[in-house]
Amino acid sequence: MQNTISSFKGITPDIGQGVYVADSARLVGEISISEDSSIWHMVAARGDVNYIKIGARSNIQDGTILHVTRKSAGNPDGNPLIIGDDVTVGHKCMLHGCTLGNRILVGMGAIVMDGAIVEDDVFIGAGTLVPPNKRLESGYLYVGNPMIQKRPLKEAEIAFLKQSAINYVELKDDYLAEGA
Prior knowledge:
By secondary structure, the chain is mainly beta. Helices cover 13% and strands 36% of the residues. The chain has one helix at residues 155-178, and strands spanning 5-6, 14-15, 20-21, 26-33, 38-39, 44-54, 59-60, 65-67, 81-83, 88-89, 94-96, 99-100, 104-106, 111-112, 117-118, 122-124, 129-130, 135-136, 140-143, 148-152.
């Protein structure tokens, strides 16, 4: 992991116990990743002008970009990127200065923009655009560009949100066991 993780202005990413970071990922600056999470191939995460926090058992899949919004006169705190526990972020997503709760699935290619808040137990469909400062209510499927609240989640879909995170914990454990 040494080549994938670097400091910025003296702040180095804080990697929790049992975290897998692929060799081709790049983590810079003020980033904290909680236990049993995984950062997959070609992920770029820049905690350079604000911070990134990733909860436990979350997975950030291949080609995803994680970034933040700087502090300014109009936005004194900026927008950090906060990702809760048991979150699955699909391939090639972009998360920018937003907050994701727990047990969320962000479908492949989705974009979640500055100031957006995604409550717990939400499914964001592939290719969905969540505009700035939107709030996605718990228990729903959101799709489209821009996103719309499509329908309530079914029980099986809510169960899948947690199972998806478990699947990636098991996969990252296999990668760690292989020394990958």
